[in-house]
Each structure stands twice: as C-alpha cells, then as structure tokens.
Amino acid sequence: MMRDVVVAFVLLNVLVLVVTYVTYVERKFAARMQSRIGPYRVGRPHGWLQPIADAIKLLIKEDIIPAMADRPVYNLAPIVFLIPSFLIFATVPFAPGLGLADLNIGILFFLAVSSLEIVGLFMGGWGSNNKYALLSSMRAVNQIISYEIPFVLAALIPVLLAGSLRLSAIVQAQSGLWFVAYPVIGQLAFAAFIVATIASENRVPFDILEAESELVAGFRVEYSGMKFALIQLAEYTHMFGVSCLGALLFLGGWLGPGLPGPVWFLLKALFIFLLVTWVRWSFVRIRVDQILRFSWKVLLPATLILVMATGLWVALRSGHVS
Amino acid sequence: MADTEARKVIELGYGGNERLVMNMGPQHPSAHGVFRMILTLEGETIAAIDSVIGYLHRCHEKLGETLTYAQYPSIASKTDYVAAMTSELTYVLAAEKIGKIEVPKRAQHLRVLVAELQRIASHCLWLGTWCLDLGGALGGGATVFLYCFREREMILDLFEALTGARLLYGFHQVGGTRYDLPEGWAKRCRDTVGQIDQRIDEYESMLETNTAFLWRAQGVGVISKELAQEVGIAGPLLRGSGVDFDIRRNDPYSSYQDFDFEIPVETAGDCYARYRVRMQEFRESIKIVRQVLDGLPEGPISSRPGLKSVGQVRIPKGEAYARVEGPRGEVGCYLIADGGPKPYRMKWRGASFSNLSILPHIVPGHKVADVVAIMGSVDPVFGEVDR
Lengths: 322, 387
Hints:
The complex is a heterodimer. Helices cover 65% and strands 0% of the residues of chain A. Chain A is mainly α. Chain A has one domain. In chain B, 49% of the residues are buried.
C-alpha cells in the first residue's frame, strides 16, 4: 500500500516534468520544420527553461470565469479532463516490474479510461456558454465516437498476436520480433494506429475541435490561467500516454540492446510522438464531414479487415485451423 | 432575477428553428483584418451569411480631396497596404490621364517592374494566410505561412533598397517615379526572383500532393462563370471562373504591351482553381520582371522637375478613370480635377470590396470550416475594402 502511494506520487511528478519537456521538444521540432529557431531566450543553451517559464506565467495569470457560464461545470471540467489522462499511466509498464499496476486487462483499462477524456471536454464546451465552445464540443463528441472504434481495433491486433491483454505480456511477446516488423499486418496496423491516434488526440489534420481558424480555440476558448494550463497539460499527457501505448504495442516497449529499458521505452514513445508531430506540422485541417466519412468508410472497414486477417493468421499459425 | 432576464434575451435571439446565429469577427483569428460575418447555422451547415464592413474606414476619399497631387500618392499606398505599389500607381495614372502628362519609357518600365514584384509579394502573403486559414496556426498551415513570409521578406528587402520603405513606399509620382534603381539592384533582383521561382516549385509539390489540402480546396466555393460576371468580381477570382480578362492585356497601361506574358485561366471556379491561377501568376510575374530587367531603357525617370513644394503639381480641369490590374483584381481611381493643386473629388474602386460581394452567393450550404477557406481564397485586404 505504502509502496503504491510512493510510486504513484513519484510517477505523477515525473510525468508532469516529462510532459512539460515534451512540449518543449515539440516546439523545437516544429521550429526546425518551419526554418525557425524556436524557444531560445529563457535559459541557456537553447531556451531549456521555457516550459518552466510558461508554467509560471500561466500560474500568475488572472482566472476569468464568464458571467453566463455554468460555474460548477465550468470549474470542474479541467479536472475531469485531467484525471483520465494521468490515470492511463497506471497500467503502463515502463520496464519489467517498473509500473504502478500491471493489470491482466491492462490495455482494456487504458482504452476505457483514455476515452473518458471526452466527458471533461464536453463539460468545458457546455459550461463555457460560448457558441464556439459548444460547436467545438459537439464536434469532439462526433469525432471521438467515430475514432475510438478504429483506435481500439488497431490496438486489438497486437493483442491478437500476443494472445494477452496484459501490456507487459504484449511486450514480452515481441522479444523475437517487434509487431511493427511483422510482414504486412504489422505495418498496416501501425499505420492505422497512428492515424487513429492523431484523430483521437485531436491533432492536425483532425483538430476540428480546436480549429483556431474557425472556432478560435474551440472548447477551451473561455479558459485562462491555470485552468487553461491544466487543459493543456491534460492534452499533452494524454498524447504522451497514447504514444507510450504505441511503443508498447508495436515497438516492443522497453526491449532493446545496450541502453536500460526505461530509456528505450521513452525513446520509442518520443519517436511516435514526433511522428504525430511531423504529420501535424505538415498537413492542413480537414473538414468535419470529411473526418467522419474517412473514419466510417475507410478506417473502420480497413481495421476490421485487418483484425480478421490477423485472427486468421494467428489461428493458422497455432494450428487450430488446418 | 437579472440573470434569468439576460438569459432569456440571449435565447430568444437565437431565432428558433434550431438555428444558431454565430458571430465571426471583427476580431477573429482568420478574419484577414477587421471583418465581421454573422453566420446563421443549422448544425455545421451555413444557412445565411451577413457581412459587416467598415471597421477600418479612414476617409481615404476625403483625404484625397484635401491632399495635393504631390502628397497623396504616398497616402494612396495605405488603401491596400499589402500591395501598396498598385494603388499609388492607379492614382498617378488617373492624374496623368487628365493632365495628358507623358511618362518617360524608363519610368513606365520601372512601374511595371515594381508592380510585378508587388504582385509576387502580395501572392506570397495570400498563400501563407490562406494555408493558415485551412490548417490553422498550430498545424501545417503555419509551416506554409512561415515559408511564404521568408520569400515575401526578400521582396520587401528589394523595395527597401529601392525606396527606403518596406511596406508603404511613395515610389510613384505624377510624371514618373521618384527613385531610380540603385547600383547593383538589378542583379540582386534577378537573384531574388530566381530563388522565388524555385520555391514556387517547392510549394506546388508540397501542396498539390497533400491529400488534406486537396480535400479542402477542390470543389469548395464554386463560382460559375455567369455568377462571376454578374457580381462583378475581378482578378484571380474572375480568371479562376473561366473568364479570360486581365487589364494588363485588355487595356494596357504603363507599357505592358511591350512584354510577353500569359494570362492564366482556370475553369473550375473553386478554391483550387483560384489557387492554380495565382500560382501561375507568380511565374508570369517573374517572367515579366526578368524581361524588364533585360531591356530597361536608359533615360530620365520623370518628365517633371523634382518637387520643391507640395502644391507644385497642378492638373488642368477634367476628369478621368484609371484602372490597374492589382494582385486582387481591378483597382480603379476616378479623379475630378478643377485646375488647382488638389483634386475636386476622388473615388476608389477597391478590388477586395467588389470581390467580397461574392460571399453571400457562394457561402450558404457550406460547412463552417469552408467559410474561412473561401474567405482566404477571395483574399480581401480590409484596408482596401473600407478605405
């Protein structure tokens, strides 16, 4: 019990720190893509104190609550938004035995909790009593419902291959060959997983709920100060969490030569994060109807077929079907 | 309770019938200036659009009556501040038309040179901001935006070397131009347009193979040929709808007939067609700039002596309309002169103003996201709309 509390406390703090610096990595990466320098002034070298400075700035900013807002809902929303994104890390094994709880249904827990995020998002959009926010949260519900299904289906493929819902067992099953390296199935599943990740993360080209050129800032348009910081933190934590999931499911988690396990794990998660970031900074946003059409008519059938093909392959390999 | 009273007013304002009235602007990330759209939405689809303009009105036409022919050209550049050279040119052309003032060949060619460089700079800004509208400041749009600004900066550097100013130039004056090319400028200009030529290829290969971009641009905001002519839009919008009309060729001014260039025309009429027209115009402008630099005639740059006082330029009684093909379409200036140092009356025809009137015809029926795409492809500059 005591051990769990300590681990949870350490994990939470390390996570906040890591996620803060993940934003820094993204900013530097994006700047490189756009032939800029990125954060440079705060802290030498290369503005490494910028995330800390941003956090302090947001802390001391005025907290504004719109007069017509639904106050309890409005105030609660950032917290409801934040909790699931930290909760998903409960089941993530960073290395053998290094994790809070290695549930036997780890991936199920992960997927279930991660989609809870939408509740906080919708509360924020509704509680702000702002038309932009409302429109944005309606879009969000649409989109998350559409993309959770292909997301789950893509995540099911490694489960089928490993024959377990336990995340550490899925990693162990990749000790021979990472799932992404499985011929055809692995690559297609990984691609589908990345697309679904971008969509369920609401990143460009699927960021219709933030859509700053139409809806200004979407559901968080009325949030300021620390509440805004919480929403931002939650978003990036969720983002990083899903990148971790991708690393576990497809890239063999902590497995790798030379370096210690957690380092490998972090590098792989960062790789997926940067992959998503790369897409983000090189695509334009697609429209809400196109997003739904793409999900239901392309991604969902494709992942469904992949799951069936994987199932067939696994059955053939294990000799249940002759 | 006052709270519930206020709430009732707001709810009644929705207009019932499950329609949502949403205000976009005048302060909005993609308003391209200060433009207000009142959108009536049914779900995500737009049922009606009301445009509200006038937030940037600076009494330009009254200013034109109170400033002399020597003073106003540098103010004229503030109407369309993205293409300042164009509006200056229009004003001095109108004055020269009334006064029947000859302009030396070298000055005419210099005018063409800066007008085409200005077109490149203006289209750079258009491409950047349009992609920003499509992709948002936190996505691929920002990437294209920053690339385009890099190219626009190079042209602004050229203008700075030529006139000393980066945005509002005061380059033209009645009778010619105010500045001649400095030493080494021609070579620098040639290098710059060469570089931009390469970058245009990069943009095209970057955008035209990007599925998301094509999804957002193709088939959106279609303007039919008939509608385009009826509403009176001009410039790349008109040519994107299949009307082959360009003042540079149909009614040449400032020796445009000396140069060899194509007028790009697309027939689809959607955002993508307008994009294609502008991308080809980049190339044509570069072609014209090269031709000017190759065959720039020697001689004076102005048919009038240098200015010593602001009231020195006097235009005889008369009236005239001069028009110029600006980056956004036909920019016109109507002048009535009464023989004094100031015009009696001046009227601007802003290309952006006329182009904006297409919005209520094409926006309804589209999704919210398309409004910004269409707005961006219309490319309005609100300095020119409100004047």
